[in-house]
Design a protein that fits this description.
Elements (H helix, E strand, L loop, with lengths): L2 E8 L5 E6 L1 E8 L9 E3 L4 E4 L1 E6 L12 H10 L2 E6 L14 H5 L5 H6 L5 H6 L1 H5 L6 E7 L12 H4 L13 H5 L2 E5 L7 H14 L2 E4 L9 E2 L2 H6 L3 E2 L2 H17 L3 E3 L5 H12 L4 E5 L1 H5 L4 H5 L12 H12 L5 E2 L8 H4 L16 H10 L6 H8 L1 H6 L7 H8 L9 H15 L9 H5 L4 E4 L11 E11 L18 E11 L2 E5 L2
Parallel strand pairs: 1-4, 1-5, 2-16, 3-19, 6-7, 7-8, 8-9, 9-10, 10-13, 11-12, 13-14, 14-15
Antiparallel strand pairs: 1-2, 5-17, 17-18, 18-19
The structure holds zinc ion (ZN).
The site of zinc ion has 7 residues, from loops.
Length: 516
């Protein structure tokens, strides 16, 4: 049995095809019951694209599963159209490969008991074998990002001896399937920039492991929100705009000096984008991302949403927001990431000084970005998809599924003699005659049947690596955090009317999630 999606548009060629999906993944979950074995679905108006990838998510497992767990975080990913994510290392204990002992558990070191009870000796093993140890199936692919510093404390560089065996290309013969499935593919102290005294050693570790450095380019000792009229109005200490540029400029020089690829997270200021633009023109090995909130909101949002608009780096000025959009439009920004950062609403209620930084983003990122960037006329539908799938997959060392190439290589030709438009016109007429009074919209799938090329995923080579998102690029919908699959609700976008919605994800040629 299988599921057929009729009349679906290939995102970058515009060709209308029929897509046959062999079945449902073991971890499949759904908001609706449209998708089931044997279903024949009219997907007119929908788009098939490579699955989204996010190189910047926080799932809080182990250590803070009251905010988010691997299960809820992975479900949020699938619900947002994502098929691959990179998990940041600020778990508790931190994701640095150091041994977690029974003594740590007895001392109630956060998360240590979870790691020990699941039968593991460090957090990397815990996360790589999470599904088997917990008897669950996680509905998204994921890689791991290892700490730049031990305990993510910024004092000492993490020790490659603790994590090198988890990196592709090292001890490959000794690797378990889980180590290959969820490899360590980047280094970061995300949440803080790598401190100057250990930067050279961290870069040497990046070189020795052939990984890239993901840099949280922001360092400030005081301040809670962007310095400016809004911080003055709120009476909250401000963070100057150049706190970001200082790290960006320092690490551009580091990339120049060492040749190591540095990726800048969530860039948010005009002056940083200008520095990155110049460095890229020189051909330096740097890339950067921004996040939906920096292109959709300025610090004025603090007045409306309170701490739901508190993050690090802080939301900046309206001029910076516009510069962020310009940097996306001119290609300075390589990709969009969410910095999905779950917190409880109680924590977020602590006030501007005490509330933790960050918001969740996976389940409305596409809609918010589409609303601002595509509806706003700044970039095309295709470019947005590229920024959320092809580009982040490339950063993470993966290749996004090339659906157009699959169609060229594997699709069955449309039946000969069938000019799609003529057949549809004829069939439409017949349908109208036969079913007097019935809408022409009825049974549109039937009308097109037999005129499209059919791509049957069960027939393609390497079907196990076909990861797709099914999108409605035009759907208007209202963000409702209560319907999120994330365990968290901390987003300022609740109630926003956005356009563009992920409707399903397909991983390894199997449906993983659907709200079709
Ligand atoms: Zn982050």
């Amino acid at each position: 049995m299988s599921i057929t999606l009729r009349n679906i548009k290939v995102w970058n060629t515009g060709e209308i095809i029929d897509l046959k999906v062999p079945g449902l993944a073991d971890a499949y979950f759904a908001d609706t019951d449209t998708v089931h074995d044997g279903a024949d679905i009219d997907a007119t108006g929908l788009t098939v694209a490579p699955g989204f990838a996010d190189p910047h998510v926080h799932f809080r497992d182990p250590g803070q599963t009251y905010k988010e767990s691997m299960v809820s975080g992975c479900r949020a990913s699938a619900s947002g159209g994502y098929t691959n994510v990179l998990i940041m290392p600020n778990t508790l204990p931190a994701l640095d490969g150091q041994t977690v002992t029974d003594a740590d558990a007895q001392a109630d070191k956060p998360g240590a008991r979870e790691v020990r009870d699941a039968g593991f000796g460090n957090v990397i093993d815990f996360l790589q074998n999470y599904d088997a140890a917990h008897g669950v199936k996680l509905p998204v692919r994921y890689d791991l990002c290892v700490c730049a510093s031990k305990d993510r404390a910024g004092k000492e560089a993490s020790d490659t001896a603790d994590w090198l065996k988890y990196v592709p290309g090292f001890d490959d013969e000794a690797k378990t399937p889980a180590m290959n499935e969820h490899p360590v593919t980047a280094i970061s102290d995300d949440g803080a920039a790598v401190p100057e005294p250990i930067l050279d050693e961290v870069l040497a570790n990046a070189k020795a492991s052939d990984l890239y450095l993901i840099e949280h380019c922001e360092h400030h000792d005081t301040g809670a929100v962007n310095e400016g009229p809004v911080s003055h109005k709120l009476g909250v200490p401000g963070i100057p705009e150049d706190t970001e540029l200082k790290i960006v400029a320092r690490d551009i020089e580091a990339a120049r000096r060492t040749g190591i690829h540095v990726h800048f997270q969530h860039v948010s200021t005009a002056i940083s984008f200008e520095a990155i633009r110049k460095a890229k023109a020189e051909g330096l090995p740097i890339t950067c991302e921004t996040a939906p909130h920096y292109l959709a909101l300025s610090d004025e949002a603090l007045l409306e949403y309170g701490t739901l608009a508190k993050m690090n780096p802080p939301l900046r000025s309206e001029a910076d927001r516009k510069a962020t959009i310009a940097a996306i439009a001119d290609g300075t920004v390589d990709l969009l990431a969410t910095d999905h950062a779950p917190h409880t609403m109680d924590e977020k209620a602590l006030g501007f000084l005490e509330a933790p930084n960050g918001i969740i983003g996976l389940e409305c990122a596409y809609g918010v970005c589409h609303k601002v960037l595509v509806d706003g006329g700044h970039i095309s539908d295709e470019r947005l998809i590229e920024l959320m799938s092809v580009a982040p997959e490339a950063l993470m060392g993966h290749e996004a599924t090339d659906i157009a190439a699959l169609v060229e290589d594997w699709a069955e030709p449309a039946p000969t003699g069938n000019d799609p438009d003529a057949v549809i016109a004829e069939e439409t007429e017949k349908t109208t005659d036969a079913a007097a009074g019935e809408s022409l919209e009825a049974d549109r799938a039937g009308k097109r049947e037999g005129v499209n090329r059919l791509l049957d995923l069960s027939r393609v080579d390497d079907a196990a690596h076909v990861d797709l998102a099914i999108l409605n690029t035009d759907e208007e919908w209202t963000v409702d955090p209560e319907s999120f699959h994330s365990a968290a609700r901390n987003t300022p976008f609740g109630g926003w009317k956005v356009t563009g919605r992920p409707l399903a994800t397909i991983i390894g040629s199997q449906f993983m999630f659907s709200r079709l």
